[in-house]
Design brief:
The chain has helices at residues 3-11, 14-37, 44-64. It is built from three helices and no strands. 4% of the residues are buried. The chain is mainly alpha-helical.
Length: 67
């Protein structure tokens, strides 16, 4: 993930991060189904989406102040 993408994510509030994370989870599910069907050409996209979800979760946890 590029620094500018990370800075954009840091600028969002919790609700926007949660919405983005839900969208990414839905997209990840679709990618997994397409992978099972043999439709996915770029399997690295799955890794990128999982990374975006993890970063979103981390930022939400940082903003809430819990460990």
């Amino acid at each position: 993930m590029k620094k500018t993408d990370l800075q954009n994510l840091r600028g969002k509030n919790d609700i926007d991060l949660l919405n983005d994370m839900k969208t990414d989870k839905d997209y990840l599910w679709q990618l997994k189904m397409d992978l099972a069907a043999g439709k996915v050409k770029n399997v690295r996209e799955i890794r990128k989406v999982r990374q975006r979800i993890a970063i979103s979760k981390t930022l939400i946890k940082e903003k809430s102040g819990t460990n």
